[in-house]
Amino acid sequence: MAMMLAQTDKGLGAFFAPIRRRAVGKYELNGVRIQRLKNKMGNKGLPTTELKLKGTRGWMIGKEGNGLKKKSAILSALGFWGRALSISRAYTKTCNVRDGLLQDSPQHLRWMANQTVDYWAAFQLAFFGVALLGTTEQGRHGHDARAQKLFPPEDAALKTGSVRSVEGVRA
């Protein structure tokens, strides 16, 4: 599966699409053709690929022309939280406290474990919300529509996500 940005009639839209699709007795690329490869300049030289999508089957995420404007803030907050946990783990391996390293402190390990569990719970909840929104936007409203009522409106989720990201910072 891949997240793609593609031009629509109303502007740039975000799509969720499988890379391969089932053909008769085999799998083939889902309408994806490599247009060209080019080198990207910057801190790290990474190749960039331009793809031509023709007949690609995918599902739109969000509203047409909006891409991922609102949802990207929540997902970015999760990314920053994960990065902060990674930096914290690396720091505990070098920080000396009292008799040894910070990573050997039971109190700190308990705090890190709680933060890690909270992070993964928020991660799962965010992507569960994305999946629910995707099913309702595709017109399949069965029991998933009832589950969607558990989530606040999009703007409220954005405000809550911003507040939660600040509350997660420990002085």
Automatic annotation (TrEMBL):
Superkingdom classification of source: Eukaryota
One GO MF term: acyl-CoA dehydrogenase activity
Name of the protein in its database record: Uncharacterized protein
